[in-house]
Amino acid sequence: MSDSPPIEFAFPELRRWEKGAAPYIHVFDSGKPGPTVMVAALTHGNEVSGAIVVDALLQKGLRPRSGALILGFNNIDAYHSFDPRTPFKSRMIDEDFNRTWGRLDQPATTAETRRAQVVRPFVERADLLLDLHSMHDDGVPLMLAGPLAKGAELAKKVGAPVDIIADAGHAAGMRMRDYGGFGDPKSPKNALLIETGQHWRASSVTVAKDVTARFLAVTGIVEPADLPADWKQPTPARQRVVEVTHAIATKRGNFTPVRHFEGQETIATAGTVLGHDDGEPVTTPYDNCVLVMPSSNRPLRPGVTVVRLGRLV
Questions:
Q1: The pTM is what?
Q2: How far apart are CA 182 and CA 249, in angstroms?
């Protein structure tokens, strides 16, 4: 795809939402028993489909019938730095917001760790979290359910998208969706991370609206009729769970794929060559290997993950 894909929708003006329980975080408590549910957007500043959804819910004045609802924009400074001439640079200011959650007890020395400290008490309050993301490359939507069975079970209740990815996150740092009770098998807390598709495709907004409506209805704090009627899309005939077993990283940025990979392809035969890294073949480790979010179709920095490999479970 192009290094600068087209932007197919208008970005929302979010400064009107600055004043809340904390900057760009709004809490609505019903006063009745029920879970605290958080929907978060802009964990990465250029992943705008989620921001459109949260902005729309705030404009609509959605209120929970039970429990509490938290709506927030995470890396808002990165979002406000967006420049269409260099659209990928606004992913972050200093570092990836979604790799900071394992070291929040350390001094906050970057824009992202300072913002994470602001967001942290709301994430800790949440019983259920939906973190809205999108992708650098074109690809089918993916629900990242984390490594625990409870994540996949919640994703199945939501009912979309087709692919549920059971994964342990990134070696570079803990994600928000794995923080605290979300990553504890003994805790009833639960979280999902949806990758809605390429950052600026209109279809990514459609997916974000669909999954958010489904998620909020599943939590029970709202009724389906409280949500915009046109958000929910047809339910897939089936879902599948893919367990990530390997993350293939390029040593020096010299990975060359054997062909263009779309993502979520199932490679039938073990030992199939996917490409070469520094001349060494990279092969599938087992039959029916699923290629999860390949980034091998564009130039990469040393150490970047080329593709995750998964098995159907």
A1: 0.94
A2: 27
